[in-house]
Amino acid sequence: MKKKVFVDGSSGTTGLEINERLAKYDNIEVIKIDYDKRRDIKERQKILNEADLVFLCLPDEAAKESVSLITNPDTKIIDASTAHRTAKGWTYGLPELSPLYKEAIKNSKRVSNPGCHATAFALSIYPLVHQNVMQEDYPVSCHSITGYSGGGKALIEKYESDLEDNPYTKAPRPYSLGLNHKHLKEMMLHSGLSKIPVFLPIVANYYKGLATFIPIHTRLLNKKLDGKELHSLLMEHYGNQHFVKVMPYIDKNALQDSSINSMVYSEGIIFDGGIDITACNNTNKAEIFVIGNCEEGISMIVTRLDNLGKGASGAAIQNMNLMLGYDETFSLQS
Question: Are residue 109 and residue 127 in the same domain, yes or no?
Fold first, then answer.
């Protein structure tokens, strides 16, 4: 019997991509609400409770309203908004963090889909905190650069406007300058930190692709691991994951050696001494780099992903696969 799935908010960026992915399933019936009844509460409630699984691709308050309309105890929910990412009774949908996270998703009826910045951040930090290499109150700072699609339709329109001398396209634009980005609470909770990180997101004039950059002063860690040892720790933690890959270690000397630079370029790791932020686009992959300068006791953890893939709709489909008992990787590019 086909599972009935409803995408509430199917006209947004995430909703559209989820619908495209659902079209690949022959064991799912996507149910829809008539366009002229989309604001009819009773009709929406009927559809929501008819579904085996509901994706909420809505603003926070609208997502909360939809949840309140669901009375069917068998209806499963994946909420792509920020409304429930730290809420009690909700499971955080990042299965690679640990076997406990994955098992919880499989058995949950209420899953919150992670934010794009938060996904890359938590993947970078969680293993260090939970193995007591990094103390919970470590002074973490992070820059994250993303394509403009992460801002949804409104921001896409601003960047793709044909306005002459468009101010949005002049240069990368740091935002959330009040240091209070909406992902911060989930970043703390699901990485294990007890103190808020200094987090600065940056949006740039390209469509999609995201990377977080987290500097590590190894002398401040609980365990004074150098870059190579940090890399080994992450390799061990994510070694069996399908969608999360720890890339070969990058030493500062490699960036100064033209022969090594050429080799890692051919493997898609770096080019011209830099990292391609868009390399995971159109996949559900997250790739983690450790860059080390052991002589100075500093390292950098860089995690890149597609902000519309592993950072949004891809993660939602992966969580659906787990919740419905399907192959976790089905319809997802790795």
Answer: no
Statement to judge: residues 201 and 221 lie in one domain:
yes
Asked whether the beta carbons of 317 and 126 are under 8 A apart, the reply is no
Q: How many domains are contained in the chain?
A: 2
Q: Are residues 108 and 123 in the same domain?
A: no
* Catalytic-labelled residue, pool 57, 116, 142, 280: 116
Range of the domain at 317: 3-113+312-324
Reduce the secondary structure of the chain to three states and give it as a string: CCEEEEEECCCCHHHHHHHHHHCCCCCEEEECCCHHHCCCHHHHHHHHHHCCEEEECCCHHHHHHHHHHCCCCCCEEEECCCCCCCCCCCEECCHHHCHHHHHHHHCCCEEECCCHHHHHHHHHHHHHHHCCCCCCCCCCEEEEEEEHHHHHHHHHHHHCCCCCCCHHHCCCEECCCCCCCCCHHHHHHCCCCCCCCEEEEEEECCCCCEEEEEEEEHHHCCCCCCHHHHHHHHHHHHCCCCCEEECCCEEHHHHHCHHHHHHHHHCCCCECCECCCCCCCCCCCEEEEEEEECCCCEEEEEEEECCCHHHHHHHHHHHHHHHHCCCCCCCCCC
Give me the CATH number covering residue 77.
Answer: 3.40.50.720
Please tell me whether residues 28 and 153 are part of one structural domain. Answer: no
Catalytic status, residue 116: yes
Task: Tell me the mean pLDDT per 10 residues along the chain, length 334.
Answer: 93 93 96 84 94 97 97 98 97 98 98 98 98 97 97 95 93 96 96 97 98 96 94 97 95 63 54 86 97 93 98 98 97 88
Output the pTM of the full model. 0.94
Is 333 contained in some domain? no
